[in-house]
Specification:
alpha/beta, 7-stranded mixed sheet, 17 strands, about 35% helix, about 400 residues, homodimer
Amino acid sequence: MVKINSSYRKLQGSYLFSTIAKKVTEFTKANPDKKVIRLGIGDVTLPLSPTIIKALHNAVDEMAHKETFKGYAPDRGYSFLREAIVENDYKKRGCSISPDEIFVSDGAKCDSGNIQEIFDVNSTIAVCDPVYPVYVDSNIMAGRGGDYLADKECYSGIIYMPCKKENGFTPMLPDRVPDLIYLCSPNNPTGAVIDRNGLQKWVDYANENGSVIIFDAAYEAYIRSENIPHSIYECDGAEKCAIELHSFSKNAGFTGLRLGYAVVPKALVRDGVSLNDLWARRHSTKYNGAPYIVQRAGEAVYSAEGQREIRGMVDYYNKNADYIKTNLEKAGFSVSGGTDAPYIWLKTPDNMSSWEFFDYLLSKANVVGTPGSGFGPHGEGYLRLTAFGSYENTVEAVDRIVNRL
Amino acid sequence: MVKINSSYRKLQGSYLFSTIAKKVTEFTKANPDKKVIRLGIGDVTLPLSPTIIKALHNAVDEMAHKETFKGYAPDRGYSFLREAIVENDYKKRGCSISPDEIFVSDGAKCDSGNIQEIFDVNSTIAVCDPVYPVYVDSNIMAGRGGDYLADKECYSGIIYMPCKKENGFTPMLPDRVPDLIYLCSPNNPTGAVIDRNGLQKWVDYANENGSVIIFDAAYEAYIRSENIPHSIYECDGAEKCAIELHSFSKNAGFTGLRLGYAVVPKALVRDGVSLNDLWARRHSTKYNGAPYIVQRAGEAVYSAEGQREIRGMVDYYNKNADYIKTNLEKAGFSVSGGTDAPYIWLKTPDNMSSWEFFDYLLSKANVVGTPGSGFGPHGEGYLRLTAFGSYENTVEAVDRIVNRL
């Protein structure tokens, strides 16, 4: 009789977004005249830009003719895309990453969930608290992380790095050395960023201790400040200790198109084995490439027109973030994030719990946020707001929060 | 110091297709006047059909406008696609599969590599020999399958089911009971098919022993014979023991578009846990859906026009298969597969090894096949030919084989 992977039994129910949906549905049913504005979702709302659309149509046409039809893609992605990535995301920033260190994928979520596979099952992992749940859950599924301790709302074997007001919501070096360190800057959910000096400390720490950093750069397009690195490879020695994950979701609106990439430098060696080779093997065995048409869309992102268009898109969301942050602060709320980041981390007033404030906000202002406690125990007492709505809705939601609470 | 997943060290080099490519390149360089015909690849060559192209263009246009833009897809895939799958691939065949038992994915390769994750690390697995390498390699990576025994060209912990001429190249029930059984019909690489009675025996065996069958139906569209089941759920009780994997690659030419689906019935319970729930959890944590535009293309496959077009496409390849099989047999070769299947399994003449015959065929007939030994020790002495080339090339290649060897 086959047995299931018992590690799945340790996973905690993921009720965050389903509970939100249920509460919103109930509220809407009871109050059909009220217009609810959602500032909780992480999905984008602007459509794909003209240059991307044109590239998609062109690639679809290629698929219609025998001479230009494309079947199986190269394992690591098409050269045209990997070269555009290297040129724009790395060379222009002075990072020496080569196309054969790029692995095109169907998104940063998949990569961040799968990357743990190439490491030993006994590896210790360190994550921020609060944190994007995929880092933790994918490790639990693989048998790492120990048991869930319900009273502490955490797993016994995971090193949590609390991100609190006192440390600017960025993680401090942990007390014991982890094998794998997950970092995300600009951060989901707190919107906090790690500056160049701060990130260099992590790189040095990892190199001293033989750890590997999984650096999630999904939100790097939102960075406008000079001292915040867009890539971990802007730090000295990062090619010896870091894997970087990128997404086309939030910079170019590809949440429904699915495209991302992982950077695994050839200089990153552990146990005498190149992690580049290891990830290549994983990729070629268990993955079969992103669609040709989507890779052409990714290439278009890096054209001059594409860059101008997606910059406009990100500026639009950044303006939303700024509006939320500035006006809530002005009204006396305690707010962080929202600069160089699409997420705003709002302290609940009057020591309300995350869910209490969620309910209060929904009933008083008809605005939906995401309870911070859903991202980990140190998220308790916070609410995540996102900049991905329309400007008009964002302004209205903020005005309601300011005037009705 | 982080350690790597040491199971990766047990993987054997996957040199099959790279060695083929190297040999062909060398031959072409030395013989620039010779026209080489490739009957070795598993990739399709016909372009996407008009109805699919139209659906792609329409969906791309939807992505261009705020009102119709689609972001993150539902975890299990869009309802429009899951309902079309159920209606056409199951209801019409009398199988009671429901849309919430369908999980849309980016292809059967990914699903066949990932599905093992939800089972215990100590599960024993059974595979055909020869076999599609992904079933074995993904289990080795996960720590199953024991050590590689170089002299026997196999892993110590895997149950191999030899597929030889004596058993019609279909697997026999194994001596000891496996936890997981991988079956593929029509088969890659042998082109063998399992008939309804034969498949029912496997279903009964799995239900008696608590095993789970992973049924790879990637080539079901090639079936024309009445007594060969298109789905394992045509067998009684299969919903209690089988997961089925489907691809849009070989029926509709989606190799470069990436779409597939897994069926995990709700009645499939092990250790008191629904495997449907388990796979849903895996899907929602480590995957983020197939692109909206590709799911719309998948829906178009099931339209009346789409069905007519893809039937024509498969008929075209089936005609190639038939030409290869009939004419090689007529010329005295020992051939199997090629009926209800796009693969032809050719016995090498004069007791040549697979690679000897590969070289001989390349130099004499300038035709490329795939050495059977690359799929497992019982593939030695065979060559896989595929029906995915153009009809003209297929005819020319066969004529050369018949006349020049």
